[in-house]
Amino acid sequence: MTTIAPQRVVRLHYVLKNSRGEVLDDSRARGAPLEYLHGHDNIVAGLERALDGQAVDAELSVTLMPAEAYGVRRDDLIQEVARGAFPVDDLAPGMRFQTQGDAGPQVVTVVEVGETRVTIDTNHPLAGERLSYGLEVLSVRDATRAELAKGHPLDEDIDHTQVEDRKQP
Predict the structure, then answer these.
(1) Which helix (H) or strand (E) holds 150?
(2) pTM for this one?
(3) Is residue 43 located within the same domain as residue 57?
(4) Which residue range forms the structural domain that includes residue 111?
(5) Sign of the alpha-carbon torsion through 164, 100, 157, 137
(6) pLDDT, tens digit, for every residue of 98-125?
(7) For residue 84, what is the domain's CATH number?
(8) 65: closest CA among 77, 73, 57?
(9) End-to-end CA distance of the chain, in Å?
């Protein structure tokens, strides 16, 4: 029996809830199971640890504290920027934008809008949240060489021989 381990592609359904029990995401309701490459930081660390060693058809509930999920909220990640930094004129608190941060793409949330300055929060939207997952493992398979090179699963219709292979000898 194949179990979840590094270098394997996992397909699963999940329901994600916050500490108030509100459903934040439900892959079954969307008809789109999550597929990820285990051991390559494709999902939050606490969830990956909980799934390690699980087999197909496993069903489990996992609750993660903020440090195991999207981190604790940090006040130093709230900052002011020029209003002109945004691609729209009608800015309002709660709006989210994807920007390029030091560590790659990040989501920023508008907190306050002034005449010339905008206060933004660059914490992950789920930072500081205790999260609960209901999980069902659908399949586990060895990753292809191309998937290992890319660090994530590839769509079935991709010709793996056409993928540039930088990580593997």
Answers:
(1) helix 145-150
(2) 0.81
(3) yes
(4) 75-121
(5) positive
(6) 888 777 788 899 999 999 999 999 999 9
(7) 2.40.10.330
(8) 73
(9) 29
